[in-house]
Amino acid sequence: MNVLLISPNTLTVPYPVYPIGLDYVAGAIAAEHQVRIADMQTLSRDGLSALIDDFAPEVIGLSIRNIDNTEGADPLSFLAEYRQLVAWLRQRSPAVIVCGGSGFTIMPDQVLAMLEADYGIVGEGERLAQLIEALRHDRNPAAIHGVIAAGGSSALPSPWPGAQVRRFQPDAAHIRYYVEQGGMLNLQTKRGCSFNCIYCSYPRIEGRGHRLTEPQEVAATALQLQAAGAKYLFITDSAFNSDIDHSMAVAAALRHAGLAIPWGAFFAPTRLPSDYFAAMAAAGCRHVEFGTESLAAATLKAYRKPFQVEDILAAHRLARSAGLHVCHYLLLGGPGESAATVAETLDGIERLDRSVFFFFIGIRIYPGTELFDLALAEGKLDGSRNMLEPVFYDPDTIDRATIESMVEDRARTRANWVIGSGGSRVAATVRTMHRRGFTGPLWEYLAR
Ligand code: B12
Ligand code: SF4
Q: Are 354 and 424 in the same domain?
């Protein structure tokens, strides 16, 4: 069959991100089917229309990475735009339309109903191969584990048990865009996060158990991306160090393979071996993005973070002394947050030298998380509420506006304190620098 995979994500905040998920979906079906990828970051509607006329897809896959921007202070939803795209596709093509992706997986039934697509695949898109087989043989796709049909509903499937094959095509039309705009391509070294932070949707999207890619295979893919012109790699793992041994083995493999370009990743500031970040730096790591969330002991405990304040300080010191650029993401306004814990976090930040801080104020409540259950139990959420409209947790003792003004009071004089992802102003600066040849995420230029 002819299968067209579309990434409709045109968000450029904080920068355009390479749609790596579609490489894996393509990898699962390319042996049997003709596959093309249309990245709307690089293609106009006219271009898409011409592609549809030329390729005549029988199945169209839509990658729904973001449903919204999760920024309490500056909320943006993308679903109306995607719904319009599905209607537009229907006018041009009789293809069966299938949705999937990380954002989709958070609320599959609701997103499918809103977009009016035919089917959705919850979790890993590798199951598209089975769905296409069912269509080919006139069987019911909704009988497949993890597949939902319009009007149906589905429980979260078990993780994909088969191979994860990435199909990266260096000559595909969209690759040049990312190579020229900051040079960043993406790399995945494992799926899953074994930690249990109460608000987090990542284990739901990727599973709780780790599924590791062989370090040599990761290194071979990294070299392939480098050969295609990548000047920087972003490791998309939920937390690169959630399996310390594997992350060390990947770093060693990248070093032995002679990877010449720098890379960055998300890390949890857990207790780490003293040579950990030196090993990362030796393998080409340049940026460490810590999912720190708070520097107040009570808040870390309430969020069930797998580390304590001393661990954050120690991980920060190790990364800094290995010469790495460091940023910390902060997530304020969860259960138990108060003026005192916010002040503790803001004071704690002063102890983290030469860093950038991204503040997310208000925690988006996702179904399937402990925070969702807690908000229900506390009477802060009505069980029948449509969660597609972002709902943020309201702590008992402080409101989001107060937290925001506490952060803004100090952020005003500090260029390295960024509220949210920085919005369009920061994105515009990044875009200009990427056009001038700077590579990578670039937040290090804000570090103080
Ligand atoms: C890495 C990451 C980032 C990095 C990206 C860096 C980079 N160079 O790519 C940074 C920090 C920059 C970032 C930014 C943002 N992110 Co982010 N990010 C992630 C993360 C951790 C991994 C995404 C990823 O690449 N995964 C690896 C690939 C291989 O997996 P995948 O895309 O999910 O694809 C698989 C399946 O989903 C499925 N699939 C994918 N497409 C399709 C299509 C079809 C047809 C099918 C059937 C299946 C399918 O199959 C694939 C293979 O199994 C996810 C959380 C997570 N663990 O998923 C959040 C996540 C995607 N981000 C999210 C958000 C909100 C954002 C921001 C909007 C935040 C902000 N305000 O700035 C921005 C948006 C950036 C942009 N321009 O789009 C949300 C989206 C959910 C939502 N609420 O909408 C997520 C899910 C986190 C969360 N809050 O739960 N992000
Ligand atoms: S460590 Fe990060 S990815 Fe893992 S559960 Fe906690 S917040 Fe989610």
A: yes
In short, whether 446's Cβ falls inside 6 Å of ligand 2 is: no
Other beta carbons within 10 Å of 408: 14
- What residues contact residue 339 under an 8 Å CB cut-off, 6+ apart? 397, 398, 402, 406
User: What is the atom index within ligand 2 of the atom nearest the CA of 266?
Assistant: 2
Establish whether residue 331 lines the binding site of ligand 2, counting it when its CB lies within 6 angstroms of any ligand atom. no
User: What's the CATH code of the domain at 86?
Assistant: 3.40.50.280
Nearest CA to ligand 1 atom 7: 17
Nearest Cα neighbor of 100 from 45, 26, 165 is 26
Cβ(333) to ligand 1 under 6 A? no
Whether ligand 1 lies within 6 angstroms of the CB of 236 is answered as yes
> Which residue's CA lies nearest to atom 26 of ligand 1?
236
Is 186 touching ligand 1 by the criterion CB < 6 Å? yes
Q: What is the DSSP letter of 364?
A: B
Ordered per-residue pLDDT tens for the chain, 448 residues: 999 999 999 999 899 999 999 999 999 999 999 999 999 999 999 999 999 999 999 999 999 999 998 887 778 899 999 999 999 999 999 999 999 999 999 999 999 999 999 999 999 999 999 999 999 999 999 999 999 999 888 788 999 999 999 999 999 999 999 999 999 999 999 999 999 999 999 988 999 999 999 999 999 999 999 999 999 999 999 999 999 999 999 999 999 999 999 999 999 999 999 999 999 999 999 999 999 999 999 999 999 999 999 999 999 999 999 999 999 999 999 999 999 999 999 999 999 999 999 999 999 999 999 999 999 999 999 988 989 988 999 999 999 999 999 999 999 999 999 998 778 888 888 899 888 999 999 999 988 8
Residue 157 lies in a domain: no
- State how far the Cα of 166 lies from the Cα of 25, in Å rounded to an integer: 8
Per-residue tokens: 226: 């480098």
**Ligand 2 mean position to 239 CA, how many Å?**
7
User: Is-above-0.90 flag for pTM?
Assistant: yes
Q: Is 189 in the pocket of ligand 1 (CB under 6 A)?
A: no
Can the peptide bond before residue 262 be classed as cis, meaning omega within 30 degrees of 0? no
Q: Is 122 in the pocket of ligand 1 (CB under 6 A)?
A: no
CATH classification of the domain holding 256: 3.20.20.70
The total domain count for the chain is: 2
| Closest Cα to atom 1 of ligand 2 | 195
Bridge partners of 191, per DSSP, are: 211
Tell me which residue range forms the domain holding 56: 2-149
123 and 207 share a domain?
no
240 and 361 co-located in one domain: yes
Smallest Cα–Cα separation from 97: which of 50, 141, 51?
A: 141
Distance 423 CA to ligand 1 centre (A): 17
